[in-house]
């Protein structure tokens, strides 16, 4: 059975960057992707914060990454990986069929934004519903937006949006915020941010695009409608790494424990992008991680 030099789990920006670096170094590289290549960025209507590219749709960016990795010589295997085992220094990636064997593995499984779970949330994503103020905030310049969440991401999003939007509603399900006090103090000082404590978004309004939200006051259980142009959902992320915990150390939230060198607790297995412990999760940092993880894998191969 073929043994790949580098098997990459996840075909998002981190994984595809790693594939480009690995394949250009002449190694046998396979990218395992269960859906379509591109990762989270596929859903972005426009990307304006990737250095060197003024504006590009997420789908175009993803397609370009795929073409570049394929042209460099990377192979693709569109199957889901359900776990990893190690045998005599070779990593075995478990699938629903034949396992994939590799000398090194780069986990680039990303993280999924936690959805609110509201009706039509998916249909309105990119049409008024967003999960990233840093990515999409500029599309709401001068408009009215709302953020749901009470962690650091929600506080950061509210601050970013308050610099762009006419009015921002910060909606949190409790009275106490989970995010840092210093961030909350800044939010409270912004005249165009209205904080709605003990509230949640209970419905999304609008047909083709979001035109407003229905919010529920959790203290008296009353509801009212709020006209907004955009809703930013910032209620945390969901990593998808449980399947690797037999071999790889995860933190309490399920992220792979790995530093800037992308090394995990298992020799020869690296973690790149949103799936690893880090504070900034952006397209450019995912690409940076992909390069670092691939170079670390090449170094590992040269020593083993
Ligand atoms: P988080 O800290 O897990 O906070 C998620 C927030 O969403 C919580 O306030 C939670 O409410 C709320 N929430 C969860 N499920 C909900 C639901 N179904 N409906 C309504 N609200 C819901 O997530 P995060 O803000 O994305 O931060 C993730 C990690 O990255 C944290 O460790 C954070 O410190 C870090 N981070 C750091 C920075 C920074 O240092 N500048 C910036 C961003 C993120 P409850 O509070 O009631 O549970």
Summarize the structure.
The chain has 304 residues and is an alpha/beta fold. Helices cover 24% and strands 26% of the residues.
Overview of the molecule:
- The protein is an alpha/beta fold.
- The chain folds into two domains: 3-112 and 237-303, FAD/NAD(P)-binding domain, CATH 3.50.50.60; 121-233, FAD/NAD(P)-binding domain (3-Layer(bba) Sandwich), CATH 3.50.50.60.
- It has helices at residues 13-24, 58-72, 133-136, 152-162, 181-189, 283-303, and strands at 3-9, 29-32, 75-77, 83-87, 90-94, 100-107, 111-113, 129-130, 144-148, 167-171, 193-196, 199-205, 212-217, 222-226, 230-233, 237-239, 269-271.
- Helix 1 links the parallel strand 1 and strand 2 (29-32).
- 24% of the residues lie in helices and 26% in strands.
- The model has no long low-confidence stretch (mean pLDDT 95).
- The protein binds NADP nicotinamide-adenine-dinucleotide phosphate.
- The site of NADP nicotinamide-adenine-dinucleotide phosphate has 18 residues, from helix 4.
């Amino acid at each position: 059975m073929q043994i790949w030099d580098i098997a990459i789990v996840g075909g998002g920006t981190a994984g595809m960057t790693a594939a480009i670096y690995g394949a250009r170094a002449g190694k046998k590289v396979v990218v395992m992707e269960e859906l379509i290549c591109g990762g989270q960025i596929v859903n972005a209507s426009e990307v304006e914060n990737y250095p060197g590219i003024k504006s590009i749709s997420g789908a175009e960016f993803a397609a370009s990454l795929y073409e570049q990795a394929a042209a460099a010589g990377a192979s693709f295997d569109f199957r889901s990986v359900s776990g990893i085992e190690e045998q005599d220094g070779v990593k075995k990636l478990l699938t629903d069929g034949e396992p994939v064997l590799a000398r090194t593995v780069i986990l680039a499984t990303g993280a999924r934004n936690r959805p609110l779970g509201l009706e039509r949330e998916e249909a309105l994503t990119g049409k008024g519903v967003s999960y990233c103020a840093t990515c999409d905030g500029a599309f709401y310049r001068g408009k009215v937006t709302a953020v749901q969440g009470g962690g650091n991401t929600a506080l950061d999003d509210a601050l970013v949006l308050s610099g762009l939007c006419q009015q921002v509603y910060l909606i949190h399900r409790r009275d106490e915020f989970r995010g840092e006090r210093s961030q909350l103090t800044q939010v409270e000082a912004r005249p165009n941010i209205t904080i709605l404590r003990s509230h949640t978004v209970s419905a999304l309004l609008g047909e083709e695009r979001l035109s407003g939200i229905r919010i529920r006051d959790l203290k008296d259980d009353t509801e009212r409608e709020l006209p907004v142009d955009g809703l930013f959902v910032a209620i945390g992320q969901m990593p998808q790494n449980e399947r690797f915990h037999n071999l790889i150390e995860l933190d309490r939230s399920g992220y792979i424990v790995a530093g800037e060198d992308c090394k995990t607790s298992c020799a020869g297995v690296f973690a790149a992008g949103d799936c690893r412990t880090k504070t900034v999760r952006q397209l450019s940092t995912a690409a940076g991680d992909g390069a670092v993880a691939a170079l670390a894998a090449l170094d590992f191969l040269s020593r083993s």
